[in-house]
Every structure is written in structure tokens, then in C-alpha cells.
Amino acid sequence: MTDFEAIDALLAAAREEVPLPPAEVRRELREGLNLSRAQVAQALGVSPSTVGGWEAGRDPGGDVREKYAYFLEGAQAKLAARTEETAAEPVVEPETDTDDSDESPDGTGDTGESDEVEALSAPQPCVLCGMPAQHQVAGFPQHLDPADCGTPAPAEPEPVASPVAPPRRAEPAPAGRHKPVRVVPVGRRMQTASQEPDLIGAAVAAALEKHSGDLEAATAALVKRAIPDAMALLDETRKGGRYDVVAHPWIPDILRKQSARGADRIWEARPKWARTELPSGAHEVTALDINGAYLSALKTHLPIGQLEHSTGFDHDRRRAGVHLITPSEWDHDAHLPNPIGNRDEPGPLWVTEPTLRLLLRLSGPKYGLCDPPEIHESFTSGATESLLEKFRVALKDARDRAIAEDDDVTLEYVKAMYSKFVSTMGESNYNRELYRPDWMHLIRSQAFANLWTKAYKAHEEGLMVVRAMGTDELHVIGDWRAVFPEGRGVSDVKVKETYTVGEDVDPAAAGEGDD
């Protein structure tokens, strides 16, 4: 085949993408049929958050686009047919005749069957609560008003006492019948705690059953499916939320990789700092490990929707995103790491919301450690600190239970869920349901900012900070247990290792020069 024939074949095989209605229409069509995102997602073989992305303006491609177009076209036809049927129905005028002659005197209608609700000649115990009820429903004594059920009925007038029969009194409700119900908030509503599905516990139980109790095999299987399971948990915890997660928004070029194997232009402020000088003598250094660094960092200000460009110095705390700044000079390298990490080149750089907020705090009157940074331009959106809060709490609670019960299977599974969730929400072949490189950078930077804050606390409490690395490693000299709680909880630290730096001074050598 010649080159021209190959091109002709390529053009013949090319096809136009199926058109889709506007984003707002897609949501209206789904809601018009009373379908949830989960139902549509299951039919199309995607996640509910992906359907949410399509309804927010992102367009699917390939075969799934054709399936989604087919669904929308069918939904539109079904709603149109339903509208036509409603319009064609005859209008029934309301009857003005109030004559009840079609009802027989014994309380039966034209069918001759007895009404479901009947008045009782004497109160009888309600089948639901045991308290006296004045009516019966379908043959069973029952309160008609739910507000009356479970509460004592009004006292009945006592009949005239006779020498034979004592006065009749209402039967008390059986003790312990009504127990308090534990409830939890879900969005703006409340629901019983038993309605919360334990996706993590169910997944662990299923894996152990499938692998006949083999802990190693079950752990490996759970870690392998950690990404889709984390996305399923995210979808579950977002039910009833005030905001929809925009899974695939438009992303500015600064958040796109500059080359196939390269990185984008966002600076995460990752610290890699070591103290250059210590006092003379030998020092015992403790390397502390910060537990659940990424898990804690899920609580950060995240942009909800698509990032919008702006210029100028002002910082709006109601928004979050990435900012081009020129940081001020840092004059405390001798005992504290630079909040923006180690840089090879001076000048402006793109930083994330947590880094900017940290710099602004440190330039304020409480700290007074540096001048405020200069903001040149920003890409931001309306933000909330609680967007992933229920997701974070679900993972934290599962982690805490696993530690308390010495359940290593669940512990490794949960760790894989939150670490892989953060690392694959950018441009990744392993997670196509969520494309938020801005979130990935913000969460990582929040972990770095949290580590810097711990370093500052150690310094303020009299410890000598020796090293700060990545998101979870802090080396200190001194009584660190008086500053940080030790343990395996997310708010605790644990010892990674201890080592000695320097040498003891020989007293004899120190006094050789004395006369």
C-alpha cells in the first residue's frame, strides 16, 4: 500500500464523534427520569464521579461516548413521550356534589368491603408500642398519629367504682422497648448510624473469605484494588454533600506535564533540609516518623470547580488553587528549614495554596519570620476545607480500629487506599476516574506544611531540629516526648531510629592548655 493509499484508508476509517447535549441538559435528562448517577454509571461501566464530570462539562470519548449519547437520546425520547401522554390525558373536572349516598350506612363503600381504619369500642394495646389505641388498622390496634405512638395516651375517665370491679387503668409501656437511636449527619440531613455502609470492613471480610483466611494473599489482593476501592469510598462519602466533585475540569497548562517523562510547573515546597552545625560534644538524635502524613493532609482547602485565572497581590481566603509568587528572603536556615523547601534558582515560582497560606502566616505579627510573598497571578476556584473530610474520617476510623485490633490486613489496605488515592489523582493510567493534578499538589504541599509546623513546634519547645525530610521525617535532639505524643495514631509520632552525632570531649585534652 502506498503512502497516499494509507492516508485514504485512514480518512475513510475516521468518523465524527457523536454530538452530546450541553452539560446542564445532561443532568436534567437524568434527573427527569429520577435516575441517580450511580445507576447511570453502573449501566455505562464507569464511576458516579465520572458521570458527575460529564454533567459538569467534561466530554467522554471513544465507545463510552457513544453509549452515553445513546442513553441521553433515549432519556430525551422517553421524557418527550411522557410529556405527550400527560398532555393527551382527558381533564377530569372536580366533582362539586358532596352527597355521600354511595356509601352504605354500615361504613362500607360500593364494594361492600369494610374500611381499613375502624374505631374501637374500648382502647386496646397498640401493636407497635403497647400503649392504649382508640383505632385499629387492617384489624390491628394502632395509633393513627405517629406522634402518639410510644407516648402515654390521655388518661381515660374512670368509670363509677363498684364494690366488685376496681377502676381500670392504662397498661404501662413495656420497659426497654424504646431505645435511643444513634444518628449521624449526612449533608444537611440526619440518618441512623446503621445506614452507613462499611465498605472497608466488607472488602476485607470478602478478601479473607476468598483466600481462605490467608492474610498475606488477602492483603496483596486488597492493596491491588486500593485505587478503585478508594474511589468507591469517595463516592459513598460524598452522598448528601453540598458540592459535587468535579472530577475532570479544564486544567491550565502550568498543571500539565512539560514532556512525556517530565513534570509540570508547580513547586510543592518539599523540604530536604539538614542543620549545618551543632554544638560541640556528642548528641543523641531521634528520627521521628509522622504517622499518616497524607491522610492528615486530606484536610486542606481544595478548589471545588474549574480553576479561574486572576492577577494581583490580593489573596482571597475563600478560594484556593495555585499562585505565581516571589517569596521573600528566609534568614533562619541555621535552625529551621525554609517553608518553600530547597530551591536552586531564585525568582518567581508557582506554589500551592497550603504553601502560600503558610508563608502569609509566617509573615504575620504572630510569627514575624519573613516578609509576605509577592503574588503575581493565580489560578483558583471557590474552596472548602471539608471537601474530603468524610472520606478522611472513614479512612482514619478504619485505621484506628485496625491498630486497636492488631489487624494488619486492614491497616495495609487503608494505607494503600489513601496513599495511592493521592498519588494517582493527577495524570495517571491507574486512575482515570479522577483527574485533579491541582488537588494532588495541594494535598502533598499540605503534608509538607504540616511537617514544617511540627519542626517549628519542636524548635519553640526547646528541641534542636537537625533534619526535616519529605512529608513524615523529623530528626531532633532533646526530650521529644515532652513535645509530641508517642503512638501509632494519626496525631502521634513514633521512633524511626536513634543515632549519635559528634564525639565526647576528653576532659584531659580540654585542660592541656591550662597552666
- What proportion strand? 15-25%
The number of helices is 14
Average predicted local confidence, pLDDT: 81
* Euclidean distance between termini CA atoms: 100 Å
* Structure summary, number of beta strands: 16
Low-confidence parts lasting 5 or more residues at pLDDT below 50?
A: 91-116, 151-177
What does this structure look like?
With 515 residues, this protein is α+β, with helices and mostly antiparallel strands. Helix content is 34%, strand content 17%. A hairpin with a 2-residue loop joins strand 2 (132-137) and strand 3 (140-141). Helix 2 (23-32) packs across helix 5, helix 6 packs across helix 7 (215-224) and helix 10 (353-362) packs parallel to helix 13 (437-460). It is globular and about 105 Å long. The protein starts with a helix and ends in a 5-residue tail after the last helix.
Brief characterization of the structure:
The chain has 515 residues and is an alpha+beta fold.
Keywords:
515 residues, alpha+beta, 6-stranded mixed β-sheet, 5-stranded antiparallel β-sheet, 14 helices, 16 strands, 17% strand, globular
